[in-house]
Amino acid sequence: MLCCMPGVAFVPALLVSWSSAAFIISYAIAVLAGHVEPLVPYISDTGTKPPESGIFGFMINISALLGVITMCIRYLLIEKQNESSHFVTSSCNMFSLCIGLMGCIGMGIVATFQELSVPSVHDIGALVAFGSGVVYITLQSIISYKSCPQWNTYFVCHIRMAISVISCIAFIPMIVFASQISMTKIDWTPGEK
Fold first, then answer.
1. What is the pLDDT of residues 88-137, one digit of tens each?
2. Is residue 176 scored above 50 in pLDDT?
C-alpha cells in the first residue's frame, strides 16, 4: 500500500516548498515588473499580468496536484491505521478527502482563471479553495484527536487545531471584506473607494 511505503513524507514537504516558491516567484516578478506594489498585495494580484500570470498558473496547478496526492496519502494512512484501532468511521475519512479534493479543484480554478480576466469564476474558485481548506484542516484536526495517543501526540493535535482555529478566524474577514468589493482592479486612484 502506498501509505506504507517509506519516503512518502517528501510529498507534503514538496507541496509546501513548491507552493511557497509559486507565491514568492510570482510576487518577485510582479514587483520587479511594476505590476503590483511591494507592500502586501493580494496573492491573486501577483499572478494577474504576464509574464507572472503564466508562472503563477502553472505552479499553482502543480500545487493543486501535489495537494491531491498529499490528501490521498493521508486518506490511505488513516484507513490503514483505522484497520487496527477503529478510531474514525471510514465515511468520515472519505468525506474529509472529498472536501480536500474540492479545495484542490478550487486552487486549479484560481490558477486557471486570472483575477482580472474572469473575476467571478476566479472568486468562486478562491471561495471553494479557502472554504474547503478550512473545513479539511478542521476535519483532519478532529481525526487526529480521535487517533490519540496511538497514532498522534496531543502536541501535534493541539498544533493542528490551532492552525484550524486561525484559519477559521482568517476566513471570516476574508468573506466580509471580499463581499464589500464591487469591482476587481489592481491600480487605484486616490479618489476611488
1. 999 999 999 999 999 999 999 999 998 888 888 999 999 999 999 999 99
2. yes
Q: Whole-angstrom Cα distance, residue 13 to residue 112?
A: 24
Q: How far apart, in Å, are the Cα atoms of 107 and each of 1, 57, 132?
A: 28, 10, 10
Reading phi first (left if > 0) and then psi (alpha if -120 to 50, else beta), residue 7 is in left
Q: Which three cell numbers stand for residue 83?
A: 484497520
Rounded distance, CA 148 to CA 158, Å?
A: 11
* Confidence (pLDDT) at 130: 96
Distances (CA, A) of 105 to 13, 120, 133, 174: 20, 16, 11, 19
Amino acid at 172: I
